[in-house]
Amino acid sequence: MKKLFAIVAFTLFFISAIAQRWDANWTFGYNAGINFSDTANPVAFYSHANNREPVGCISDMDGNLLFSIVGIDNDLFSFNIVDKNGFEINNGDNIYGYQSVTNGFLILPVSVEKDSEFIIFHISSNRLSSN
Questions:
Q1: Tens of pLDDT along 70-121?
Q2: Contact of 107 with 119, CB cutoff 8 Å
């Protein structure tokens, strides 16, 4: 009985995990984006990304782009968080990172029940360094 319960619980966990589409959109490069909501037919779209690396974005549980992290022109160290329309979000300015870091941002939802709270981890740079 315990074995059957464990199998059912394990299966239900993975079914619910598959239904979440926080990674349905990828933004990268200079205005490039791909929507993977339909994995058999990915769709390219215009994004507000404007840097080679690092990039970060997250979608809601239905696969709609919520926000992305974009570089600030002519600044290797500063990034902003913009909504799906390219407008800076509240308190989304001056995130310090470094443009030559692959996977420099990690965005995680605080709760699986709502699409409004996220934690952003990033690799920062030492702007005061002379090296």
A1: 877 666 677 888 999 989 988 888 777 766 666 678 888 887 777 778 888 8
A2: yes
Q: What is the pLDDT of residues 17-36, one digit of tens each?
A: 555 677 889 888 788 889 99
Q: Classify 88 as helix, strand or coil.
A: strand
Strands (E), the chain: 25-35, 43-51, 56-59, 65-71, 78-83, 95-96, 105-109, 118-122
Instruction: Look at the block and give the residue holding tokens 């699409």.
Output: 115
Cα 114 to chain center, whole Å? 16
Q: Which residue has the tokens 């470094």?
A: 98
H-helix or E-strand containing 10?
Answer: helix 2-19
Tokens of 3: 């074995």
Cα–Cα nearest to 48, from 88, 86, 104: 86
Strand partners, 57: 68
For residues 124 and 43, give the distance between their C-alpha atoms in angstroms, rounded to a whole number: 32
DSSP conformation class of 87: P
Tokens of 67: 């926000």
